[in-house]
């Protein structure tokens, strides 16, 4: 998988007595707990810590040591030093919230800026994460989820921070930002695209020194951020969080997704209903169609030019007719890497919050199947397209060359289940089990049945048997697939 987010952190020698604070050894422990999850991190350290961190991470290729830097080398330190007679907040922990510490906290966006200029991983997004963030993280799932998001496409334009306080509470307490910590923002994590982060850094270049000169007070970074927001110099998105696992729990709405489906000539008109049910749930929709269908012969591609709401949001992909497997294969080369792909059928209308609910349950990279605990008790694997499933694009790299025997044209679900089994793709439940939470429209309490459905051919069981024989496998209960010895 190619990373989409570069994380940035720093651990600098503050050249002062920190004996009453967390020891460097404890901080290194916390950092190693983060680093071992495979998240790609650019690390800035002072010269005195360089060898220690290099040894700590020698077996972790995801850790990228940046050129050593001292606090006095930073723009933040030099700018703060240039303003005389600066005092510190009255309500602070004296051994912890020192002059140098507060400068370092404000330098977070500067380290981001330095990493962006180098961009060793060529990513479009960067995130600050505190060196000792694992001090407040207690769940393995939280870090696994963060790793998944760091390898997934996120919104093109985003400046996102966790926040303890609402905007109103923050604004009502602006009078206190000079004297005590102001928890509008949590501080330990933020993420954005390069342009948004550069704009954030420019806010410092434009306003930080003026703030110091006007108030003669050096404050925490979260206080200055709240001041920027209050003055409307900066308008980030904020999600509710605290100093616990929620601090790095990026809302699933920021995860980019596309939908991929196919259709047949008798449903060219009806499939518009399926598309419209998804338009506001995904970033793009790919509809794969053929000019020559084995069941229907030569046809003209559907014309959606009069569907104004489709403009720029729906791509019709001309494809070979692979039968229902066309939804998996037809548009694959057109779909961006590192994105999550929702596969579905053309004769269903999907619930308006289905994709959000599915994404909320994504943790590890894998395939996510709706109605998992019900379909696994059927015959022929777990993957079922009609209720919808979602794959990380990286898991489909072997799909174009995967054997597609003629019988699979009738039973793409079983074929896709075999692909997952033979390619070690783990299938996870979305925890969405009921039709009412999947479909916008039901027929007698069940899914709708479209025109010319494959089920009407009545050959499913024989095709499943033929497919199993072709791959020399056995479909077993609980969705298990084994080789026939």
Helix content class: 25-40%
- Tally of separate domains: 2
**How many H/I helices?**
15
Largest sheet: 7 strands, mixed
Can I get a quick summary?
Helix content is 29%, strand content 15%.
Explain what the structure shows.
By secondary structure, the chain is α/β, with parallel strands linked by helices. The protein folds into two domains: 249 residues, Spore Coat Polysaccharide Biosynthesis Protein SpsA, Chain A; 228 residues, Spore Coat Polysaccharide Biosynthesis Protein SpsA, Chain A (Alpha-Beta Complex), CATH 3.90.550.10. 29% of the residues lie in helices and 15% in strands. The protein contains 15 helices and 18 strands. Strands 3-2-1-4-6-5-7 form a seven-stranded mixed sheet. The protein has a seven-stranded mixed sheet with strand order 12-9-8-13-15-14-16. Strands 10-11 form a two-stranded antiparallel ribbon. Helix 5 packs antiparallel against helix 8. 41% of the residues are buried. It holds the Pfam family HtrL_YibB.
Which tags fit this structure?
single chain; 485 residues; alpha/beta; Spore Coat Polysaccharide Biosynthesis Protein SpsA, Chain A; 7-stranded mixed β-sheet; 15 helices; 18 strands; elongated
């Amino acid at each position: 998988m190619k990373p989409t987010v570069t994380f940035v952190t720093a651990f600098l020698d503050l050249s002062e007595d920190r004996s009453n604070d967390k020891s460097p050894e404890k901080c290194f422990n916390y950092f190693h707990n983060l680093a071992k999850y495979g998240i790609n991190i650019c690390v800035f350290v002072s010269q005195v810590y360089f060898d220690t961190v290099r040894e700590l991470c020698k077996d972790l290729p995801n850790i990228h040591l940046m050129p050593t830097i001292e606090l006095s080398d930073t723009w933040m330190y030099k700018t703060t030093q240039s303003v005389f007679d600066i005092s510190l907040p009255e309500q602070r922990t004296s051994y912890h919230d020192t002059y140098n510490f507060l400068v370092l906290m404000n330098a977070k966006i500067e380290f981001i800026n330095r990493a962006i200029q180098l961009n060793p991983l060529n990513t479009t997004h960067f995130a600050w994460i505190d060196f000792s963030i694992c001090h407040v993280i207690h769940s393995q799932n939280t870090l696994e989820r963060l790793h998944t998001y760091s390898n997934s496409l996120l919104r093109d334009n985003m400046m996102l921070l966790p926040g303890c306080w609402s905007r109103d509470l923050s604004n009502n307490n602006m009078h206190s930002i000079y004297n005590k910590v102001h928890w509008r923002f949590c501080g330990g994590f933020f993420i954005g695209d390069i342009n948004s982060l550069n704009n954030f850094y420019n806010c410092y270049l434009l306003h930080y020194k003026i703030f110091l000169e006007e108030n003669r007070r050096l404050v925490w970074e979260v206080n200055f951020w709240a001041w920027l927001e209050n003055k409307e110099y900066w308008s980030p998105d904020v999600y509710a969080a605290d100093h616990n696992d929620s601090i790095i729990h990026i809302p699933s709405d920021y995860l980019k997704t596309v939908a991929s489906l196919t259709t047949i000539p008798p449903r060219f008109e009806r499939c518009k209903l399926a598309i419209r049910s998804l338009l506001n749930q995904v970033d793009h929709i790919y509809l794969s169609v053929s000019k020559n269908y084995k069941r229907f012969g030569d046809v003209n591609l559907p014309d959606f030019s009069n569907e104004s709401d489709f403009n720029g949001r729906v791509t019709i992909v001309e494809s070979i007719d692979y039968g229902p497997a066309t939804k998996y294969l037809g548009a694959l080369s057109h779909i961006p890497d590192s994105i999550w792909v929702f596969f579905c059928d053309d004769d269903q209308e999907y619930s308006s919050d289905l994709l959000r609910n599915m994404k909320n349950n994504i943790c590890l990279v894998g395939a996510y199947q709706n109605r998992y605990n019900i379909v696994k008790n059927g015959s022929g694997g777990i993957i079922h397209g009609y209720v919808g499933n979602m794959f990380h694009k990286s898991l489909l790299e072997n799909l174009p060359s995967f054997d597609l025997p003629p019988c699979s044209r009738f039973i793409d679900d079983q074929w896709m289940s075999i692909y997952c089994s033979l390619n070690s793709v783990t299938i996870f439940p979305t925890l969405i089990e009921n039709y009412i939470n999947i479909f916008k429209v039901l027929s007698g309490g069940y899914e709708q049945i479209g025109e010319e459905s494959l089920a009407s051919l009545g050959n499913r069981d024989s095709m499943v048997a033929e497919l199993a024989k072709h791959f020399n496998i056995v479909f077993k209960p609980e969705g298990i697939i084994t080789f026939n010895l």
